[in-house]
Amino acid sequence: MNINSYIDHTVLKPVTTLDDVKKLCMEAVEYSFAAVCIPPPFVKIAADMLGSTHIKVATVTGFPFGYSALEAKVAETVLAIVDGAHEIDMVANLLAIRNGDWAYLEKEIGTILPLVRSKGKVLKVIIESGILLEEEITKCCEIYGRYGVDFVKTSTGYAEKGATIEAVKLMRANLPANVKIKASGGIKTFEFAKALIEAGASRLGCSASIDIVKQANAI
Hints:
By secondary structure, the chain is α/β, with parallel strands linked by helices. The chain has 9 helices and 8 strands. The chain has helices spanning 18-31, 43-50, 70-83, 94-98, 102-118, 134-147, 165-174, 190-199, 209-218; strands at residues 7-10, 35-38, 56-61, 87-91, 122-126, 151-153, 180-184, 203-206. Strands 1-2-3-4-5-6-7-8 form an 8-stranded parallel beta barrel, surrounded by 6 helices. Helix 6 (134-147) links the parallel strand 5 and strand 6. Helix 7 packs parallel to helix 8. It is globular, with a radius of gyration of 16 Å. 46% of the residues are buried.
C-alpha cells in the first residue's frame, strides 16, 4: 500500500505560521502526498510553491464549527478558488444537522457545490461524525450522496472524537460509489490509517503524516 498517496498533509491550528506552511509544502513534495490542507490565508503561497507539482492545495471553509452564514461560506469558497485552491473542505452546518433542518442543509450544498464545480474544483463536506447520531450520519450521506459531492469527510479534528472505523463503514454503506470518504481527526499510526482505508476511506487528513509513512516503511 502506498500510504503517501492517500494523505492530505495538514496543518490547521489557529496559530499556524508562514514557516509552518512552507515546511508542510516541502514535506508534501518530499513524501509525494496527495495534498496539503492549510488555513485559507496561506492558500496563495502554497499554490505558488506547489504549482509545478502534482500536489493539490486544499483549504477549509466554515471551519471548524460549520455554522457560518451561507453567504460567508460562499465568500470563503470564492476567495479560496481565486487564491488557487484545488479542493475545498467545507464544514456542514452542524446546527442544521443536530436540529433536523435538512432543508437548510440542502440549500447550503445546493448553493456551494455548483460554485465549486463551475470552477472544476473538488468539494469535501465535513460532517463531524464523532458527535453525530448514527441516523444523522445516515441522513447526511443520503443528502450528499444525492447531490454527488466529491467526498464526505468524517471530522474537523477539533471535536472530542475524530475518525472511527465504524463511522467510515457506516458512511461507505450509505454513500453511492462515486462519493468518496475522507477520514480525519486523530490518525496517528499506520495501523489505524490502513484500517480506515480498508473500511472505505479514499483520503486521510493527517498532521502526523511523516510518522505514519515511517511506520509503514518499517514494516
